[in-house]
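Quick start: what a row looks like.
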Amino acid sequence: MNEPIQPENLNTHPVGHRSSAVVAAPSIVNLFGLEISNISVHEAIHWIAKCALLRQKTLLNFVNAHCINVASKDVDYYRVLRTSTRLFPDGSGISKAMQLRGMQLRENLNGTDLFPPLCELAAIHGLSIYLLGAAPGVAAQAATNMQQRYPNLHIAGSRDGFFSAAEEAQVITDINRSGADILLVAMGVPRQEKWLADNLDKLHTSVNMGVGGLFDFFAEKVSRAPLWLRSVGMEWTWRLLQEPRRMWRRYLLGNPAFMARAWRDARSWRRRANPATALQSRPFLAKYRRIQLRSSARAVRLAKRILDIAVSASALLVTSPLFAATALAIRVESAGPVFFSQTRVGLHGRVFRFWKFRSMYSDAEARKAELVEQNEMDGGVLFKIKQDPRITRVGRFIRRFSIDELPQLWNVLRGDMSLVGPRPALPNEVAQYTLSERRRLLAQPGITCTWQVSGRSEIPFEKQVLMDMEYIHSAHLATDIKLLLKTVPAVFYGRGAY
C-alpha cells in the first residue's frame, strides 16, 4: 500500500455531481437508480487518499442489501445516496443484483476490509482520521488498536455517537479543531448518512464516510466471520448467529425482499435497454400491451367526452341570462346578427360551423384586406391587431372577458369541439401550415388550451404550435381539468385578449 500518490495529476469536480465524480472512475454501474463504483479495493483506497490530499470535499457511502431496503421506504435517505460523491458496493446482495444484469462485481468494498489499508496509506502520507460513533469507548478502543498496528497513524480524535441535538454543534467544532482529513461516522443506516449530508458544509474534513458497525470489529467487540464464509458471500449468517434478536428481521425478511427488488430492477433495466426485443420475445405480452394501450386511449376519449357534455350543458344553462344580456347589448350598439359564424378546421381536417358572439362591425371581413399590413402576429399565419378598428365597444368588452367565446359551448355539446384542445383554425390558415404544424389537427379543437391560459395572443404562433403539441402528447383527463381551472383566472386578468 506504499505506492506514492500524485494529487496534481487528478481532475477534481464539486461534491454532489455524480456524473462528474471527484476522481474519474474506471467503472460505474447503475443499480436501483444509484450510481455505484465497480472498482477494486486498491483503486478505492487510493481514490480516498487522493481526495484527502487534495482537500476535496467528498461524501462517500456504502450500499448493501439492507441499505437498498431502507432507501425504498425512506425518501430522504435515498436522496442522500443519490447525491453522494461515491457509493461503494458492500455485500453479496449487490453482487447478485449485478449478476441479474449480466455484470460482474470486481471486488466487495465493505468498510471493514477497506479500513486497515486506508490506515496504512494514511500513515504513509500523514493523513489524519477522526472516528465518530458507536457506543461509549468503542471508537477510542478501535483507534488505539489501529495505532498499535500502524505506529505512524495519526488519529485526530474520537467520540461515541450518543450525543443530543443540543451537543451536535460542539461535536462538529471538536472535529474541525482536530484538523482531521478523514471522518468516519458509525451511527448505523440511515442516521449516519443523513447526519453527514446535513452537516457536510459545516465540517472541515475532506473525506466523509458512513461506516456502520466498523468500530465494533476493530475494537474487538464483535468478531468477523471466518474468511471461508466471507469468500462465499455468507458473512451475514455469522452476524445473524451473533445477534439473532437484532438481526433476524434484517436478514431473514430483508434478504428475500431485496432479491425481489433486484429482480424487478433488472427486469425494468432490460425493458428500457431494448423494449422492442423484450416485447417480441413475449408475443402474448406484446398483444396484451397493444390491447391495453388501445383500451386506455378509448377510456381517455370517453372520459373526455363525458366531461365535455356535462360541463357544456351545465354552462349553457347557467349562463343563459348572460347570453340574453350580451345579445341585447350587441343589437343596441350596431346593426347585424348577434352571432358570428365561420368555417373552421377540426379533428383530422374535418370542417365545421364555429360560433361566437359578434364582436365586430358587420363589414369587418370586407375591411380586413385594408389592415393586413398592420398584422401584429409573427409568421403571417394568424391575423391579430391590438387596436383593431373593426371591433365594437361591446365587442372589446366581451373579448376582454372571453364572453364572445361562450356560444362555442354549443360546438362542444355537438361534438365539433372539446372544452380543452388546440384552438380551431381557419381553412386559409391551415393552408399555410407546414407539415409539422398540421399535427395540431391530430386532436379535437378546444375552447381553451395551454397557450390560452399562458398569454393568448401575446404568444408567437410557433410557440403556440409547440404548446399544442406538448398537450396532444400528454393529454389526460387530469390535464384537462387543470387547464379548465387555470382558464378562470386567465379570463379574469385578460392577458393577451384582444
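That is the whole record. The two ends are 76 Å apart (CA to CA). The chain has a mean pLDDT of 83.
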